[in-house]
Design a protein that fits this description.
The chain is of the alpha/beta class. It folds into 2 domains: 306 residues, ANL, N-terminal domain (Rossmann fold, 3-Layer(aba) Sandwich); 109 residues, ANL, C-terminal domain (GMP Synthetase, Chain A, domain 3), CATH 3.30.300.30. It is 27% helix and 24% strand. It has a 7-stranded mixed sheet with strand order 2-1-11-10-12-13-14, with helices on both faces. It has a 5-stranded parallel sheet with strand order 4-3-5-6-7, covered by helices on one side. It is globular, with a radius of gyration of 23 Å. The two termini are 41 Å apart.
Length: 530
């Protein structure tokens, strides 16, 4: 996959947000860069917003290197914080809006954020936190009326005195993005400025972006995918439109109204769209291509026939970049594609020894360009060393390399679950389940759904004489877990399969999967509260 000449337009020292904004504002001026909610901002206006938001942050006592946490849906305020932090050298910590309880406590504690910015509707998530153990000094509230704000909150200012850009380098951290752990709490991925530059360059090359493209995404800005979309638009001189959420019933009208030519879908979104009645609205749009990693093979041709949109497969992660993929004309069914120029990939065994083509093993990745990958896990040096051992990033994904150089995804080596684009830590779900006074033991694992993605299943051993029912256990989990982490399937079992030294053999639980006695939340008709 050829890289656009952006790498020559932006030499290594200029791969920072201030340089990218300034260079592109000079080049594209009053062309619209961003549409979000009722706001439409040009390249010039985004540069001005960055300088003034930096001024507002400085007025709140934020200095270079400080972390600023934000719990917010897709709103202009989140973009303003991204630009302001990046302009002054502070670090943005976008928090999943579904986070609560111990998970939210961990993210805020681990990041050491001094300022917390929260949309009013999410302020209730803070009620159960141990505020005394956190570094938070101020809370800014977004939206709502002053009457909705707790006493310790103040309205978020959108502007302040314009600041000059900080003198930053490509290695300076711009964001910490939390991704679920497997045997422990979520890990904060340290993302430098240059990593976002390469996200924009590589994803733009894969999509073969054109000068008149309009990008449109419903994915949340607290994840890499949507943040990456902003840098695609910034670097390629395009317009990006952010929508509040994905709606299957309103998707086609939305992309038509935005005049989108490029959109972004997660694996489960495609079968969800296909499950609705076909109609002329599915072709009444300008979208030619969708970045859609993880779509089951059986849906791909059907989707293109019905909608006229090509689906693009590939591989990237929060810690890495878009490193594997091919253009639409080179897509192979069931394959992710070859490794991009500028990256290295290999398949290895448990001792990091390379495996021959055709044999499944763990995918290891490395970047040729400095700081194209994340630099580690914030405050977790042991996890950083483990993941980047032998100078290769260990993805935890099992793949096969074909003789022609293409890579095919097989499954996950890690004890992780992926649902609706969210990484779910089985460890975190198990800790909540084990906190129930009637649960003696619990094991959480993925099973496949009818949409071709993971669903969360739990095997539960109850304490003697317990009368706990599955629905009551789910209701116990709701205020303590993100809605997407709450188990769908529950099996009550006498014992968990284990090795001689007591380690649970989850592969046996996965192989057994959903059985006749398994309780299914969706079949029961119970709807989770969000």
């Amino acid at each position: 996959m050829p890289i656009f000449d952006l790498s020559r337009q932006f030499p290594p020292a200029d791969r920072t947000l201030p340089c990218m904004l300034s260079r592109q504002a000079e080049r594209f001026g009053d062309k619209t860069l961003l549409q979000i909610g009722e706001h439409s901002l040009s390249f010039d206006q985004c540069q001005d917003l960055a300088a003034r938001m930096a001024g507002a942050l400085a007025g709140a006592g934020i200095v270079r290197g400080d972390r600023v946490a934000v719990i917010c849906s897709n709103r202009i305020e989140l973009i303003a914080l991204l630009l302001g932090c990046g302009w002054m050298g502070a670090v943005l910590v976008p928090v999943n809006t579904a986070s609560r309880g111990a998970q939210l406590q961990h993210v805020l504690s681990n990041s050491g954020a001094r300022l917390l910015v929260a949309e009013t509707s999410f302020l209730t998530h803070l009620a159960s936190l141990d505020r005394e153990s956190l570094a938070i000094e101020r809370i800014w509230s977004i939206g709502g009326s002053p009457n909705d704000m707790p006493e310790q909150c103040e309205p978020m200012p959108l502007t302040g005195p314009a600041l000059s850009p900080a003198k930053l380098g490509p290695a300076d951290m711009m964001a910490i993005l939390y991704t679920s752990g497997t045997t422990g709490p979520a890990k904060g991925v340290c993302c430098p400025h240059a990593q976002f530059f390469w996200w924009g360059v590589n994803t733009g090359a894969l999509l073969e972006l054109r000068p008149d493209d309009v990008l449109c995404t419903t994915l949340p800005l607290f994840h890499t995918n949507a943040l990456n979309t902003f840098f695609q638009a910034l670097l390629h001189g395009l317009t990006v439109s952010y929508e509040t959420r994905f709606s299957a019933s309103g998707f086609w009208d939305m992309v038509a109204e935005r005049k989108a030519t490029v959109t972004y879908l997660l694996g489960a979104m495609v079968p969800i769209l296909l499950s609705r009645p076909a109609g002329p609205h599915e072709l009444a749009h300008r979208v030619r291509i969708a970045l859609a990693p993880g779509v089951p093979v059986q849906f791909q041709d059907h989707f293109r026939t019905r909608t006229g949109i090509g689906l693009l497969e590939g591989y990237g992660s929060t810690e890495t970049n878009f490193v594997i993929g091919a253009g639409l004309d080179k897509q192979k069914a069931g394959a992710m594609g070859p490794v991009f120029s500028g990256f290295q990939a290999k398949v290895v065994d448990e001792n990091d020894e390379p495996l021959p083509d055709g044999e499944a093993g763990e995918l290891l990745l490395r970047a040729d360009e400095p700081f194209a990958f994340a630099t580690g896990y914030f405050g977790m040096p042991d996890k950083t060393v483990e993941a980047w051992r032998n100078l290769w990033f260990h993805t935890g994904d099992r793949v096969v390399r074909d003789p022609d150089g293409t890579f095919r995804f097989v499954d996950r080596l890690k004890d992780a679950i992926r649902r609706r684009g969210e990484n779910i830590s089985s460890f975190e779900v198990e800790q909540v389940l084990l906190g129930h006074p009637q649960v003696a033991n619990a094991s959480v694992f993925p099973v496949r759904s009818e949409l071709g993605e993971d669903e969360v299943m739990a095997a539960i051993v109850l304490k003697p004489d317990s009368t706990l029912e599955a629905l009551a256990l789910v209701q116990y989990c709701e205020p303590r877990l993100a809605y997407f982490s709450v188990p769908r399937f529950i099996d009550f079992v006498d014992a968990l399969p284990a090795t001689e030294n007591g380690k649970v053999q989850k592969f046996k639980l996965r192989e057994r999967g959903v059985g006749p006695a398994t309780w299914d939340r969706e079949a029961s008709g119970y709807v989770l509260k969000r």
